[in-house]
Structure formats: structure tokens, C-alpha cells
Specification:
single chain; mainly alpha; two-stranded antiparallel ribbon; 5 helices; elongated
Amino acid sequence: MFYYKNTDIAKEFGVSPQAVANWIEKASDGKNGLQVEMVENKFKVIINTHNQLELKRLAEQGKKYHNSTTMAEVEPDSLFYKLYRDWETPRIHGR
């Protein structure tokens, strides 16, 4: 049997590793539809189509509680471009 790594789930679905741990804990209690299996005293998420869909659902469900203002993109005004040279702006934008 093959299993997801919790960090891979977090990256793929844009959630925190703690969220993934919470989902696995709830799955072990039968409170969500994830299929998990005990491996070496630790629950692991089985790689299958059902779990892929369930992970997507859980991630979408969690996003409705996510504060979207923290992810807002802003565009600098013209003064910004007057103060900084073209070669400096990618470093400021983080690109």
C-alpha cells in the first residue's frame, strides 16, 4: 500500500500541516471520509482516488474560513516606479 506524506498533502492543497494532522485525527475517529491506515503506530492517508477527492473537499471546506484579506495583492502606484529602478523592483516584489 502507498501513503501520502502529510507535508505533500499540505503543499498540494494549500493548507497547513496542522490542518492535515487534524483531518487524519478526525478520520481515525470516523468523523470524515478519509481512508487512513495505522502504520508503525501512526495513521497514514492511503493514496487512492477516493482520498484525492476527499482531500480536495476538506481543503475547500477549510478555505471558507480563511481570511482572504491576508492574501490580497496590491499594485504600487506610479511613485513607487519613480523611486526604484527596474532592476530593483523584482527583488521588492519577491520575484
